[in-house]
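FAD-dependent oxidoreductase
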Amino acid sequence: MSSQKKIVIVGGGIVGLCSAYFLQLQGHEVHVVEKNDFGNGCSSGNAGMVVPSHFIPLAAPGTMKLAMKWMFNPESPFTVKPRLDREFWDWSWQFYRSATAKHVKQSGPLLMELNTKSRALYQEFSSFLPFDFQQKGLFMLCKTDQGFKEEQEVAHQAQTLGMEARVLSREEAQRMEPGVELDIAGAVYFPLDAHLTPPTFLKSLYQHLKNQGVVFHQQQTITGIQYNKRQVTSLVSADQHFEADEFIIASGAWSSALVKDLQAHIPMLAGKGYSFMLKTPSVTPSICAIMTEARVTLTPMQQGIRFAGTMEMVGLDQRINQRRLQGIYKAIPQYYPQFGAQHFSSAPVWSGLRPCSPDGLPYVGRLGHYDNLTVATGHAMMGLSLGPITGKLISQVVADETPEVDLTLLHPDRFYRKRKSAYA
């Protein structure tokens, strides 16, 4: 174990809090700096799914074609707003290069391992934290025969990797969810997946960390990083300097801009998503689900049913696009006919920005040539699912231990190193 250090974590979402948890277990003095109030970031409004089934990264064959198909449909679940800046085109080029079968083959086992370990850590958390960890699996609901065929291929890949996946007819899926009508061609069921209510977990973990002596600084936006040679010396906000022995950047979609003071480059685009809660549903499914063709999720939670969807690559813009929202409203009754758009009209809508790397893998590890700066970001739609294992890995990196998972594919400098070698 490393000697006790003072550690400052930037970001109070799921990744930052889980990092704080494992670091305080090692006896460190931990401070968490958050630009908003705790519990109001991207982690709080997401779909709440823990998904070992999600072993295919965002950058995969066919994604580019699908993106082009959806780009000009104002109600589609995906859109990209092209920009003239180099950051956007650099990200797009790296995404294009990563969207290969070889990349999926390399990264699939890693993503499955990370999500499976994270699920086990959630089980551990549930033994001492009060939150609703529901181990009921995940439905991948398919409306069309083509969609069902494609999802069966994913199920086969999962089985090849050693994961249980069950291909279900419409009738078989309906028997597993007798309390709600399903209008589908078929489904794939992943029994190892789970779900929870994100705000409940975040609040519970936050309170636990406070009780353990972790210090929280909210409403503090970091505007600069000071360093001396290979050492970061402090982080600067409008009215404070945060000095420490170690620094962790876990500020989601804002992480890339934050490290520019260090002449460091983490390719990242923000992917905006929406969610809303149906608090008094007439029927309540018991199993969380993804409506595959529509890319909309359904998660039973303590306060009702949460629906979530869309991926808008439009920069750091959290404004709500009503046309995209209408796309979600229209999609849900196609799979769950007992729900109609009229049920959602009065539900408050949340929007959040997911930090997306070009290859669909998170950034976890030391950044650049700095000896005391570690990055934990870029989890895209899997921030909540991967939060616990990311926090544990960060604590192992800080302690100079060999991480329990090989971090080579997650290295924060991986795109820079490729570029450098290409021009050598």
